[in-house]
Write a structure and sequence with these properties.
By secondary structure, this protein is of the alpha+beta class. Helices cover 22% and strands 28% of the residues. It has helices at 22-30, 93-96, 108-111, 117-135, 208-220, 269-276, 291-302; strands spanning 35-40, 43-47, 53-54, 72-77, 80-86, 103-105, 146-149, 154-157, 163-164, 169-178, 181-186, 198-201, 224-235, 240-249, 263-268. Bound molecules: zinc ion. Zinc ion binds at residues 139, 141-142, 144, 157, 159-160, 162.
Length: 308
C-alpha cells in the first residue's frame, strides 16, 4: 500500500528536545521567518485560488489581540518554526485582519480534499492541538487552572502540578473478510448507497483486536477470529486515531443492530472494484481521504491472502 492518506505523513519535525528549551522557543517566536497558522473556531486559514493551501501568517497578524493568543509549536521544516495560533476570540476575523480577498477560514473536514496531502497532516495536528488546549484550561484532578508548557506539547496544573497530555481517542475500523467476500455496513443518513468498513471506539482496557471483534459482532452479528493491523490515520474531529485492520470472519450470517447501522452486506471483489472506480450507480464507498477507502482498496487489489 503506497497511496498517501489524508492527515497522515505530517512533514514537520515536532522538535521533541528543542521545544523544552525556553530560549530556543523565545527566539523562534521572535524570528521573522517563523510561520503561524491561524485557526478560527477550529477552522484553519486557507489561501483562496484554484489550489487551496494553508495560509501562513507572521506574528504581527495576531500580536495586538487582547488577550494575546498563545501559539502552539507544530514543528520545524528546514529549521523554520511553524506554529498554530487560535484567533477564535475575534468576532469577524476575515474582516478584522483584512484578508477576505486572499484567504478564508474553512472547515477542515470539508476542505481536506482540496489541500495538498502533505498539508492535511499539518492541519490535522494544528486542529487537534488547538481544540485540546481550548478544552483543557482546568485541571481534571483538582479543578485548578492549567498552563501550556513545552511550546504547547502539554499542560501543567498551577495548583497540584499534575501533567496533562493531549488525548487521542483510538477508533478500530476493519474490513471483515470471509473467502472471496468482504463485509461492509452503512449508517442511517449516509449519502446515496455508500457502504463502509465497520468501526467503533476502543474501550478502556481493551485491545485493538478485541475492539474489532466486539464491534463487528455488536453491529453485524458476525464472529471474527484473527485481526491484523494495516495502517492508521489521524482524524482530528476532534482527536481520533483511526486504526485500520483486516479481520477474518468465522461466521457468515448477518444480524444487524439497528441502533448502530441500518444495513450490512457481503460484497464480492468485483462489486467493490466497480464501486471504487465509480462505475456502480447502486453502490459507493468512501472517498480517498477516508481510511476505509484504502482498506477496501487494499482488499480488492491485494486480497486477504497477504494477511492470513
Ligand atoms: Zn490540579
Amino acid at each position: 500500500m503506497t497511496d498517501p492518506i489524508a492527515f497522515a505523513g505530517n512533514p514537520l519535525d515536532r522538535e521533541p528536545v528543542r521545544r523544552r528549551d525556553r530560549d530556543w522557543l523565545e527566539a523562534r517566536l521572535a524570528d521573522e521567518d517563523s510561520r503561524f497558522l491561524p485557526l478560527w473556531r477550529l477552522s484553519p486559514l486557507l489561501k483562496k485560488g484554484e489550489q487551496r493551501a494553508l495560509a501562513w501568517a507572521r506574528r504581527e497578524f495576531f500580536e495586538d489581540l487582547d488577550p494575546a493568543p498563545e501559539p502552539v509549536l507544530l514543528g520545524t521544516d528546514d529549521d523554520v518554526a511553524h506554529f498554530a495560533v487560535d484567533v477564535s476570540a475575534v468576532a469577524d476575523p476575515e474582516g478584522a485582519f483584512e484578508i477576505a480577498e486572499v484567504a478564508s477560514f474553512e472547515d477542515l473536514r470539508a476542505a481536506a480534499a482540496q489541500l495538498p496531502i502533505s498539508e492535511t497532516g499539518i492541519a490535522a495536528q494544528a486542529r487537534a492541538y488547538v481544540d485540546w488546549h481550548a478544552r483543557h484550561r482546568f485541571c481534571a484532578a483538582c479543578g485548578g487552572h492549567t498552563r501550556s508548557v513545552q511550546a504547547g506539547a502539554n499542560r501543567v496544573c498551577f495548583d497540584c502540578q499534575a501533567d496533562h497530555f493531549p488525548r487521542t481517542d483510538p477508533v478500530a475500523i476493519a474490513v471483515v473478510v470471509r473467502g472471496q467476500q468482504c463485509l461492509l455496513g452503512r449508517s442511517p443518513g449516509w449519502p446515496g448507497r455508500m457502504f463502509s468498513a465497520l468501526a467503533g471506539f476502543v474501550e478502556a482496557g481493551e485491545s485493538i483486536e478485541d475492539a474489532v471483534r466486539r464491534e463487528v459482532f455488536e453491529e453485524a452479528g458476525v464472529r471474527v477470529g484473527r485481526v491484523r493491523y494495516l495502517l492508521s490515520q489521524p482524524w482530528p474531529f476532534p482527536s481520533s486515531l483511526m486504526i485500520g485492520c483486516v479481520a477474518h470472519a468465522k461466521s457468515e450470517e448477518i444480524r444487524i443492530d439497528p441502533s448502530e447501522i441500518e444495513e450490512a452486506r457481503w460484497f464480492s471483489r468485483d462489486a467493490l472494484r466497480a464501486a471504487l472506480d465509480g462505475k456502480r450507480s447502486d453502490l459507493s464507498v468512501p472517498p480517498p481521504f477516508a481510511i476505509a477507502h484504502h482498506l477496501i482498496r487494499t482488499w480488492v487489489h491485494d486480497g486477504a491472502g497477504g494477511f492470513f
